[in-house]
Amino acid sequence: MPESVTVLMPFKNVEPYLAESVRSVVAQTYPHWQLILVDDGSTDNGYQLAQTFTQYPRISLIRNEHNLGIAASCNKAMEYATGEYIARCDADDIAHPERLARQVAFLQEHPNIGLVGSFFTQFTEGWESLVRRQVSPAEVAVDFLFHLAVVNSTMMARRDILPQPLYEETAGFEDYDLFVSLLGSIAMANIPQSLMHVRKNPTSFSQTLPQGQANRNSLASKAKLLRRLGLEPGLEDISMHDRMCHWYHRYRLETNLQDLLGEAPRQHELEPWFARIIAANQQSRLLEHTILAHKLEETLAWFPE
Q1: Per-residue pLDDT, 246
Q2: Host domain of residue 268
């Protein structure tokens, strides 16, 4: 029997977008799917709308008694998942009709890869932009040093490589935390095609966090990766690395760089820090050395002297 895919879709207060997102799963060309919706304490009519989709026998609906968060909602959904593959789709995003088919085919053709994402198209009303990511497993692994190298809403993974529970519920950024935990044991890649439209939504969970909480989550996530490399970073190290990542992201977008010059680390600050990363990785061998060294050398040139 062909491999089945379980799609996890937690939601909260996304009534204007939920139907389009669900219909994009229903419209998949790959027929062997299961969709699990989890209402995480909606105060709009999202739950009532989601109920109308349970007419489809492959769609299940769970309702949390109170708001638990994305991580706990996905963990609850995993208890009902039947698929050999697990995919994520945010409830305000839109899947390409062949998303599941192409990702299943990719994993079947690459048995050494356990998790795959893709390029995606970020959009709002009247605007959209293609967002690329590194493709090969070695480059994807290194790219996690700088940002989310696999975007959660594009993810599909073999169920048997995922931890139980799926997400650490105390982690601020559950997706980044999961991927960092898998580094070194599971190869991750991206398909170089846009298979998702990812909405730039100011009311999404990550966008509505208080700024202080978002910063703490970001620092904690990056600290975990640095420790996995074998470093014992201090707060100043983590803060500088976070500033470097922020500049890296803005440099790639080529937007408002002059506004960030004051907060960008200088090359003389980064050179010893990058040397420490390389030295730690030579011991831990978490990342491929030649790709890491090339990436850090390339990145250093982007920063002001």
Answers
A1: 80
A2: 209-300
Amino acid sitting at position 68: L
Q: In this structure, what is the dihedral angle of CA atoms 278, 225, 100, 70, given to the nearest 10 degrees? A: -160
**Residues 187 and 215 grouped into a single domain:** no
Q: Which two tokens stand for residue 166?
A: 């799926």
Is the CB of residue 88 less than 8 Å from the CB of residue 198? no
What's the rounded Cα separation, in Å, for the pair 142 and 234? 21
Q: Which pLDDT score is estimated for 215?
A: 57
Neighbours of 174 (CB within 10 A): 22
Residue 97, in any domain of the structure: yes
Instruction: Give yes or no for a contact between 85 and 58, defined as CB atoms under 8 angstroms apart.
Output: no
Whether residue 241 sits in one domain with residue 127: no
Q: For 225-260, b where at least 16 C-beta lie within 10 A, e where not — what string?
A: bbebbbbebeeebbebbbbbebbbeeeeeeeeeeee
C-alpha of 192 from chain center: 16
Angle, nearest 10°, between helix axes 70-78 and 174-182?
60
User: Residue 101's domain is classified under what CATH number?
Assistant: 3.90.550.10
Task: List average pLDDT for each run of 10 residues in the chain, which is 305 residues long.
Answer: 89 97 98 97 97 95 95 97 97 98 98 98 93 97 94 97 94 90 97 97 51 61 91 90 80 54 78 96 97 95 85
